Input
Amino acid sequence: DGQHLVNYEGFWFPEMFLPSIRSSRNNFVAKNTDIILATVPKSGTTWLKALTFSVANRGIYAVDQSPLLKSNPHKLVPFIQEYIGDEHDKLLPMENVSDPRILSSHVPFVMLPYSVAKSECKIIYLCRNPLDQFISLHHFFASNKIEKEAVPLGFEESFDMFCQGIIGFGPFWEHMIGYWNAHLENPKKVLFLKYEDLKEDIVLNVKKIAEFMGCPFSEEEVGKGVVEEISKLCSFGNLKNLEVNKNGYVMDGVLKNNTFFRKGEVGDWANYLSSEMAERMKKLMEIKFEGSGLTFKI
Ligand code: A3P
Output
């Protein structure tokens, strides 16, 4: 859908990202204090970046002074591979990133930098029901021209590819199951979150995130309503309406800030997918997630 994909070790990657993904896999040196955000694209990465940034920096900035009010979350929490020089296979200096560093990635668990498993750094994974994820992705491609030469696929065709697993960082089920199993194996290393749960109870999940990050909210903070304040600051309505997110671009001017804030709802797929398409996807999820214990509210 507007991107050239290549298969690498069983997963599909946008060709333009592969050099930096491979380079960061070998060269990125994780620190024990790092927090790595891992997501399927269009699962709420921007939201998770805002939340974790706010949780980690709550002692430094009052909510009404938050850098989030002036910067798109992707500027404050970069992708790991943004620091890796493609051609030189070298780490670029991480400027303006103080400890604990929060960095993000879309790569599958097995493709994370080798140093991540060896260090004590923590991983927060976020995914979303694939029906909404697909619809979100479709709109995102329609409103950003990602590759000049790539010919966009039609809706039905891109849905078919998605169901075959041919999608950036897909197959989505392999991506999710990889992190799900890593979470089951070591829940202190990998926190597993779902977009739908965050929508249902953000306060509970912000507390969960803070605990996992090793900086739980004190009773005093809870009493003062800090958790609610952070939740509100990072809410869809608030971020979408900030001047900084209405204009401008991130990632070398390729992606429009406002395209990261579309609708922010659960179940929007029902407005776009035919009942046959929805059935196909539900059946696929049943088969792929069978026995794993992984389920989604859709
Ligand atoms: P929709 O296209 O369904 O609206 P990502 O950040 O991984 O690119 O995901 C983008 C999706 O998350 C979009 O979904 C976007 O609207 C939604 N989103 C962005 N910020 C959000 C927030 N603060 N709260 C809830 N959803 C948010």
Q: What stands out?
A: Residues 86-91 have pLDDT under 50 and may be disordered. Residues 39, 41-47, 132, 136, 139, 234-236, 239, 260-264, 268 surround adenosine-3'-5'-diphosphate (CB under 6 Å). The beta strands are 5-8, 11-14, 35-39, 84-85, 90-91, 102-105, 122-127, 190-194, 249-250, 255-256. The longest strand covers residues 122-127.
